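The records we work with from here on pair a chain with its fold. Each token is a code from a learned vocabulary of local backbone shapes. A record is reproduced here so that you can trace the correspondence yourselves:

_____
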Amino acid sequence: MYLPLPYTECYVKKSFLMGPENFKWGADEMIFGILIGFKAIRNEAPLFEVYLPDYAACYDKVLQPAIFNKKFACTEKIEMNDVAWWDCLSDECELYQKPIRMFIEAEMPTKRKVQGDYLWTIDWCRDPNLQGQWNVWNEHKQKNFFWDEHTGALCCTPNNKMRYYDLSLTNSKVKKPFFKVFKGTWSHEQWATDDQFLGDTDWDYEKK
């Protein structure tokens, strides 16, 4: 349910620290903070824990559209679907960084165009309590995070809604992906005959 995040400085909209009845989706005062945690509950939007040095306090339930990397009067209305595609697929997740420095271009559900440098990825793990979309490959969706260069908002998108650009690796003329969704369950142990069972073999799988 909880992941520690890499040290990431940010600014949080003040109204999102004052309860939902006070949320301002447009212009708001910004408060400096440090992103320190990510909370996942299946079928809900993730929540972020932010340390607020001016108050020597942590606020552990910040919604993503309240988080920016710039201190400015954000007059543009930024709502839930402007920064992310999907809710959490599981209570269990993991964080990793893809080992290439990449620039991202993406489109959000509202058709908003966003772009920025890749930060890190959160992916979903087995939930011990139930079966869900996390284990159906054609429904499995990562959250790849980046700061939008235009608004400063913290955004995330799945792989099929974004393009990654690496100056050293990406071609000057990028092709449109022809890819299809991966489906099914696959195994290296689809054996059929008795002589393929190895319980009575030696260490190097030679028959006795």
Summary: The chain has a mean pLDDT of 88. The longest strand covers residues 2-13. The chain is about 0% helix and 35% strand.
